[in-house]
Specification:
The protein is mainly alpha-helical and about 300 residues long. Helices cover about 50% and strands about 5% of the residues. It has eleven helices and three strands. It binds a DNA duplex (17 and 17 nucleotides) through helix 6 and helix 11.
DNA sequence: AAATTAGGTTACGCGAC
DNA sequence: GTCGCCAAACCTAATTT
């Protein structure tokens, strides 16, 4: 396995301050936080296996993959309370067994952290599935929660709030276009509290996230509006041209995305009303109007109604 | 459905309280 | 933890085209 070392500077901000994270197997920019390389660690199946049947088509490794979503990464084996081995015979060296249990206790229930972690991970799993978020996002959220927990940031805060904050930050990093409100609504937690918490976590842990761009919303909105991929491409194009003219700074990315989709849908012969787009994008019709007028104006696009 | 208008509300980081 | 800072961007709501 070889590590690709061709990437030497950030594609976004041209910084050379690249950070290699061994745990995640990825390289990201130390300045803007964008992930440049992923899956550097090779988790693919072994080239061949060595079982008795000589089965050469099954190249899988043994056992479930290691995951952040279980508090012991799914790799821990329990030691039974009985002083017997698997066949039921008494084990003679009881003191040794005692020592083994002691170590297991220490590693498993260190204070209350592991317990806290396992309940938090359950909540992350259930919330993420309700939010239609991929395994990748779940793993990242779990990772962030764990770091926050060991940095003592959960003390005096509810697990739920911290879970939401972790999920939101994971979203930002992986550009999955969910808002604090989306999460707050499903978790039934105040959005302000989540906002306050996720900001503190980011600051204390030194987590940086890529700047949000309108493009990350296009996919989701177009799907929700049942628009053809041609319309979607047109919307991307409009956003790209707007970015070249530096028109997007300070505006809400979802508003730009909504406006671009509106224009593309009208011009492309698959019209959607401002009302419909406002619905799926969580942006008002007024904002869509303002944005789309400005966009159509600057880009010389005719939108006839 | 879309446009217009007017007026109230938010988000941001940071320091002071 | 909250307040205040501030302007622009955003929102709500009513009304008109």
């Amino acid at each position: 396995m070889s590590v690709d070392t061709t990437v030497v500077k950030c594609s976004e901000c041209a910084s050379r301050n690249l950070v290699y994270d061994d745990n995640r197997g990825e390289r990201h920019c130390g300045d803007c936080g964008i992930v440049l390389e992923q899956d550097i660690i090779d988790a693919s199946p072994e080239w061949r296996n060595f079982n008795q049947e000589g089965n050469q088509t099954d190249r899988s490794r043994v056992g479930a993959p290691a995951t952040n979503l279980l508090h012991d990464k799914g790799l821990m084996t329990d030691i039974d309370w009985q002083d017997r081995d698997f066949s039921g015979a008494l084990i003679r060296n009881r003191s040794q067994l005692y020592r083994m249990r002691k170590w297991q206790r220490r590693s498993k229930i260190k204070g209350s952290r592991q317990k806290n972690l396992s309940t938090a991970l359950m909540k992350i799993r259930s919330l993420c599935s309700k939010l239609d978020l991929s395994k990748t996002v779940q793993e990242r959220a779990a990772d962030i929660y764990k770091k926050a927990l060991f940095a003592d940031l959960v003390r005096g805060r509810s697990i739920d709030t911290m879970v939401c904050a972790s999920i939101f930050i994971a979203n930002q990093q992986l550009q999955t276009a969910r808002t604090v409100d989306d999460i707050a609504k499903i978790a039934r937690i105040g959005p302000k509290e989540i906002g306050r918490t996720y900001r503190e976590v980011k600051r204390k842990l030194g987590i940086r996230t890529p700047l949000p761009t309108p493009t990350i919303y296009v996919d989701r909105f177009c799907n929700a509006l049942a628009l053809q991929t041609k319309i979607q491409r047109d919307a991307y194009d409009i956003i790209r041209r707007a970015e070249e003219l530096e028109m997007n700074d300070g505006k809400s990315p979802s508003g730009i995305a909504a406006a671009a989709i509106y224009i593309a849908s009208q011009v492309g012969g698959q019209p959607r009303t401002q009302r419909e787009i406002a619905e799926v994008s969580n942006v008002t019709e007024v904002t869509i109007r303002n944005r789309y007028k400005q966009l159509a104006d600057s880009l010389n696009i005719e939108v006839n109604l």
